[in-house]
Every structure is written in C-alpha cells, then in structure tokens.
Amino acid sequence: MSAFLEYKEVIGEGDFVLAFIGRDNIKPIIVKKDDILNTRYGAFAHNSMIGEKYGSQITSLKGYGFIHLLHPTPELWTLSLPHRTQIVYTPDSSYIIQRLNITAGSRVIEAGTGSGSFTHSFARTLSKTGQLFTYEFHESRYQQAKAEFELHSLTNVIATCRDVCKKGFVIDGYESGCDADSIFLDLPSPWEAIAHLPQVISKSKRVGICCFSPCIEQVIKTAEALKNHGWSNIEMVEIAGRKWEARKEMIRDVSDVIGRLKDIKRRKEEGIEIRDKLQNQNQNQKVGEKRGNEDSNEKEQFVKKTRIEREEKGFNPFGKGLRIKEGDEAYNWKDISEPETEVKSHTSYLTFAFKNAPTKPIVNHQS
Amino acid sequence: MDLSLESAEKPVSFAKETGVITVGQYVLIKLPSKGLKIVETRSDGVINLGKFGSFEVNGILGFPFGQSFEISADKKVSPVKSLVFELEEEELENMDQETSRESTPILELMKNSSETNRDIIDIGSKIQGITSEEIELFKKQNNDNGEILISKIIESHKGFNKKTKYSQEKYITRKQQKFMKKFTVEYLSSSNLLKYYEEKDLSKILNLSEETLGLMLNLLDIRPGGKYFVVDETGGLILYAMMERMKGEGLIVVGHENEHPNFNLLQYSNYTESAINSMIKPINWLQFFEPENEKLIFNEQTKEAIEELRPQKKLQYYRRQKRIIEINKTIDFVTGKDSQFDGLLYCSTIYPTTLIPNIITKIKGSRPIVVYNQYKEILVELQHLLSKNLNVLAPSIMETRARPYQTIPGRIHPLMSMRGGGGYLLWGTRVYPKEGGVIAVGRGFVRRNERKKQKLEKEEDNDDNNKNN
Ligand SMILES: C[S@@+](CC[C@H](N)C(=O)[O-])C[C@H]1O[C@@H](n2cnc3c(N)ncnc32)[C@H](O)[C@@H]1O
C-alpha cells in the first residue's frame, strides 16, 4: 500500500512516516522495531511510534523535546526529499496539474525524472486508475529514483532509463504508444524530445504539454519546435510563489516617545542630583564607612522606581534597549505578515501548448 | 460508520468526453473578441452568439475540443485553422520573396509595408476612408463575409502601406476581433469555468485565480476515495474541480449557511443529479452546531396508506423519505465525536477565526487544513489564532501568481497587463497534541509537574527554532 495513494490512520511497523522536527527539518523514516531516530531535540524510539495515530506528537526517550509524526503527502515530501537535482516545487507543479487538467485516470509522460519530486505529485493526482511514464537518462539517478518509487509503492509509475531526445518514449509493452494525455518536459533541450511525441500521445483526446526551462533562449527554441510539430495555443507563463508568516508589530505612539524623552530628561536631572550627592558622599567616605550601604540602597530604589513607572505608563522608557516579547499584553500590537528573507524569484519558464484530438466523423442517425 | 454515507444506488457514471465535442454537453465558446460563453450542445439546437452570428449545433459535433469554426450565412459552420489570423515569422519573410505559397486576400494586401512606422501621420479617424454606414452597407451586400469586409477596410485605409508588417498584423487582428464570425469550442474544465467567471463576474468566485485554485487543490492532497470537509462560497467551482480530480470516488461534505446549499455552477458539470448527490453531502451550520435539534423526523406511513396515494404523491413521499434519511445520515456522520475527514478546505466570507477552530476537530490527524481568503489580513489573524491552537502544525500563508507572456519567438515579453489579486491560502496540518504532558502514567505528581514545565520550555525552544528557520 502506498502512503501517497491511500490514507492510513494508525502507524504500524514498516509504515512510512515524515518526522516533523521543524519547519525546515522533516525527516522521512520507515518505522522499524527497536530503531532510534536521532535529532537535535533528542532520540526518539520507533517503538513509541507504533500504534500511534498519524499526526501524533511524541516525546524523546529523555522525556522532553518532541516531534510530530506526519502522513506522507507529495507536498511534504517535496520539502523533505534528498535533492539529487533541481526539483519542481509546489507552486509550479500545482499550476501545471491544474492547467493541464490532470485528474484521477490521467496518463502522463514526464522527462527527466530527476529527484522524483514532481513524480510523487503526479502519481497522487492521477491515482491508481491513471498511469505515469517517467524517463531519466542518468543511470544512477534513475536507479535511485526507481528504488524510491518502489519503496513508496508508487505502482502507477513506470520508470525508464532512456535518453528521450535520442531514443524517444516508446517502451516495451507499450509499442503502440502510452495513450498519454499530458506531457511534462523538464530537461535542457525539450525541443529535441518534442519530435518523438506523436508515437506515444493519445489518438482520441486533447493532449497538453508543459516544458519547464529556466532560460528564455530555451523557450524560444521550444516554442518554435512546438509550432513546427503542430501544437497550438502556445503560451509561456512564469509562476511566483510567496510565503508569509503572521507576526505582530508594536504600535509605538509618538506621545509615548515624547513621554519617554521627558522621562529621560527628568531622570537625567535626578541622576545629576544623585551623582552630586554621591560625589559629596565619596569625598566624605573616609569619615563614615557605613554610608556605602545606604548608597546602593538608594541606587536600587531608583532602578525600582523606573521599573514601576514603565509598567504604569505602558511604554518602555528605555526605548528599544529592553527586549519585549512579541505580543506582550502590556503593549499595543498590529497584526502584520512577514515575507521570507529570501524568495525564489525565478524557478523556470512554463511553456504550455495543446494538440487537438483528430476529428471523429459523426454518423447522423437522425437523417 | 465509514460506509454509511455511500449511496446505495451506485454505480453512477463520472466518465466524460474530453476529446471531441459530443451532444448534450456544456462547452465553452471563445469568441474573437476574447469574450466567453457557456452553451449546451443540444441535438438539432441553434446557438446564438450575438453579433458573431448563429450556428447549428450538429455542425460542430464530432470535431475535437479546441477546434475553431467560421459561421456562414445559413447558420452552417466550417472548421478553420484558428480564431484570428496570425502571421508566422516565415510567412512574413516569404511574402517578400513572392513564393508560391497560397495567399489570402489579406496576405496580398500586406505585400506593401514599411520598415518602420516613421511615415505614419497621426490624423486619427480621417485616415480610415470608409465610414461605419458604408461598412454596414458593404456587410449586407457581401453576405456578412468577414474576410471580404476586412480587405475592403484595409483597401480604404490610406496609411496601411506605411505601417510595418507587425503593425499591419496588429491592425488586422483588431479588425478580425470585430468582424470575423469565428469561434472556438473548448472543453469546460474547472480552469475554463473559472476563466468564464473571470470575464463575467469575479466577485462570484471570490476573486479566486487559476493558480490559487491549483495550489489549494494540491495542498489539500486530494485523492479519489478521500472524505473532505469543504466550505465553498464560489457557487460550486471548487466542488466541480474536486469532483473532476476524484472522478466520482469519495465524499465531499459541504458546510453552508443557507437552508439549501448553492452549487449553481455544478449545473455545468455534465454530471447527473444523482452523480452529484452521491458525492456531495450538504450540511448547514445550524445542523452542524445543534445536531440534536436539527435531525429531521420522518412521519412514516403504513404500507396501505402509501399504496393508496396517487402516483405523483407516492413519488413525493419516497423522495422526501430519501432526502430526510440522507440529511440525518450526514448530520450523524459529521457530528460524530471521532475525526472523520481527510482534509478541510475553507473558502467562505464567514470570518474564519470564528468557525475554523470548530471544524478542525473533525479532521483526522496529519491531514491538510487549507483556508482561502481574498485578503491576507484575514489569514494573518487566523494564523495567529492557529499558532496558539496546538491542533494545527506549522500554519503559514501562501500566495501564487502567474505572469503570462506574449509568446512569439523574437517578440517575447510579459503581457502589458494581467489580473491583480487572486487570493491567499493558509496551509497547515492537523495534529494531535500530546495530552497531559510527557510523563508516563504512575509517576509522582510533583515530578510530573516539573517535567511538564521542562517540556513547555523546550516547546518554546522548538517554536523559536521554527520561527527562525
Ligand atoms: C531538473 S531535473 C528534473 C527534476 C524533476 N522534475 C523533479 O521535480 O525532481 C532534469 C533531469 O533530466 C535528466 N535529463 C536531461 N536530459 C535528458 C534526456 N535527454 N533524457 C532523459 N533524461 C534527461 C537529467 O539527468 C536530470 O536528472
């Protein structure tokens, strides 16, 4: 049973789990009796996972530090998989699936397989009733991907080691074609592969294609090849995906600033008074030693007083110096959204095109 | 419980013809003006496209989706290569070389052009030597033939030869959009249905864009056979897209705020009513929150009494019975105390913070929570709320925007304008927080509290770590 094709509720031995350690730290594991998962938050016994529901939180062997046990999805897999190549991320892959109208039962050709990121997403959506043909010419990358698909029981994926630009897409058992209704090409020269498509695409359905290329020069060659091979509705788009986190920004009122400035001024004056006083006292130090205690008392009281003032006023008289916890209820906050510090400003250009099915003459039964 | 919602009357068919135009289908019609229309292909029917003319449905049957047609005077159609005439790069070159390529009247007219637009004097409409009255007259005289009309317009355009080939092409395209009686027939996919509302009334679909629809469906991890809780205020666009992806397998419970749900757009789905009813189960919020009071009571009649009913009444009786059983089943299923659903998709103008925490408990562990809103601010508030609610792991807000390009080799550039907006998504995963701290049962109370504190501190550490990443 594949965790990418069917749902499971309770974790058993041999099940595939994504251990969620942190947002950028998701570790794929196969649950095995007596195994231990080591993380920076502690060691977690696989035994403690068996029998738990997917979505459960478990604690480390030491009793503190925790992780969540997640059910695999292609979207989480994309965030956790071992990169062997550049991969296609969810904003791009989801758009391609939507625009090519891929559904349960679709038949899709993908080249090259690369790290198999998009393969998982395709496989889930076209489901057990569909079929995915994926091609990769790099031998060891192909072997790794194939082993991974087997481990994940992606029974609807047929992986082939092949240079599709030179040898095309026809494979054993599918000599008369793959009956593919959608094509996805993520390789450096898609225009060389396009010529081989007529043998394998559907003869009865409208066929869609998407070529995924980072450079505009590739788009030009691809668009020309598509046109020359009878594809129409050629259009290129770019997808920009962004992520935001909800945060809170302190509402710092100008009247508070004025209050603070006044406060500084006042304390300065008080400070001068105290300093003068202390100086006088220092000069008299030799006379009475015990005064030292009283000095520190006085300082302490001064610090205490400002703290109370701060709390009463609802602003921080020290300005930015003091660390305040975001959302501290003693202050006013505005909900804001913070963008990621670095964004993927360009993944690739997506060139789409379509090919109509052949006309099916209608026998007019009415005449 | 699991099977309690499956309909007994299966199988219903979810197979659809997506390759060629068949009779009895809703299809999308694209007009040269870029306008869109949804029409039904009734056998022997006639479809009226307004100023672009009328045509007989039988003429388009059997042709593939994506095919363009031209309407002739007698409502007949003939297939044509494309909606508007587009010049190929090489055709432009070939024209200069007087090759033997077949030429159209318009291509002939383009044989004279200028290297640049520099000789064009901008004298506005005077440069066009034909008036709109003359155009109307000419149309009548020539059986409404678009191509002849456009040739005529070009002939009387004094500055046409001074234009470059590119501007000539642009000019011709504009005239074609106005006068050609052509159209293209497309399969009504969820994306095409969305495009139609993009043209017609975006507010009806809450400003949702195609790319956001795609992202939301993938984040929801839709699988055939899954059971989803959906709130769809787009009139059924999202439901339509989900039904297409699931191809009839699985269930969608739809929370709604009226006495009867509004899935108007599903009428275009080409699915039968019983197919729709077998997959989609509505429940309103009153039924959701007060199931005890809202379950319907059916006054069962004796067999004899039923037999005595008139056929019409009898049918009504059974229909009512079926409906009530369905509603009660749905209420039981949704309000049962176990989590039931493989995902939540929320697309509603009901303020999400007021409703979502109540639905989350119905979602199974490690299943996606996806919330759509037109406005990021509303999702920010929701993310704050969910970050405190330990039932949702790592919620964050996502945005996706597609930027379309003019894709003609040699003249590639982003389109000068594109639609703004398209909405935002909040995506998180439903989890089960560990109950009662971390200590196994049977340890001392004091130590237990100690550990609990330790755990909480650690938790904050983890949180900090998450935020920093
Ligand atoms: C960028 S990666 C694909 C990544 C993949 N889409 C993913 O999401 O993981 C491109 C892959 O195409 C393969 N490739 C390049 N040219 C090829 C060809 N002619 N035939 C088959 N595979 C090819 C490369 O070896 C590489 O692994």
TrEMBL record, chain A:
Gene3D superfamilies: 3.10.330.20, Vaccinia Virus protein VP39
Binding site for S-adenosyl-L-methionine: 136, 186
Domain named tRNA (adenine(58)-N(1))-methyltransferase catalytic subunit TRM61 C-terminal: residues: 65-354
Keyword terms of this UniProt record: Methyltransferase, Nucleus, S-adenosyl-L-methionine, Transferase, tRNA processing
EC number: 2.1.1.220
Entry's localization field: Nucleus
GO MF annotation list: tRNA (adenine(58)-N1)-methyltransferase activity
Comp. bias regions, Basic and acidic residues: 287-300
Predominant localisation class: nucleus
Region (Disordered): 275-300
Pfam families hit by this protein: GCD14 (PF08704)
Reactions mediated catalytically: adenosine(58) in tRNA + S-adenosyl-L-methionine = N(1)-methyladenosine(58) in tRNA + S-adenosyl-L-homocysteine + H(+)
GO biological process entries: tRNA methylation
Gene Ontology CC annotations of this record: nucleus; tRNA (m1A) methyltransferase complex
InterPro entries: SAM-dependent_MTases_sf, TRM61_C, tRNA_MeTrfase_Gcd14
The keyword Methyltransferase is assigned to this record: yes
Keyword presence, Cell membrane: no
Top enzyme class: transferase
Subunit-structure text: Heterotetramer; composed of two copies of TRM6 and two copies of TRM61.
Record-stated family: Belongs to the class I-like SAM-binding methyltransferase superfamily. TRM61 family.
Protein's job: Catalytic subunit of tRNA (adenine-N(1)-)-methyltransferase, which catalyzes the formation of N(1)-methyladenine at position 58 (m1A58) in initiator methionyl-tRNA.
Protein name: tRNA (adenine(58)-N(1))-methyltransferase catalytic subunit TRM61
TrEMBL record, chain B:
Single biological process term from Gene Ontology: tRNA methylation
Pfam families per record: Gcd10p
Principal location: nucleus
UniProt-annotated location(s): Nucleus
Entry superkingdom: Eukaryota
InterPro entries, sorted: TRM6
GO molecular function, one term: tRNA (adenine(58)-N1)-methyltransferase activity
A cellular component annotation (GO) from this entry: nucleus
Keyword vocabulary terms for this entry: Nucleus, tRNA processing
Similarity section: Belongs to the TRM6/GCD10 family.
Xref: PANTHER family: TRANSLATION INITIATION FACTOR EIF3-RELATED (PTHR12945), TRNA (ADENINE(58)-N(1))-METHYLTRANSFERASE NON-CATALYTIC SUBUNIT TRM6 (PTHR12945:SF0)
Subunit comment: Heterotetramer.
Role, per record: Substrate-binding subunit of tRNA (adenine-N1-)-methyltransferase, which catalyzes the formation of N1-methyladenine at position 58 (m1A58) in initiator methionyl-tRNA.
Name of this protein: tRNA (adenine(58)-N(1))-methyltransferase non-catalytic subunit TRM6
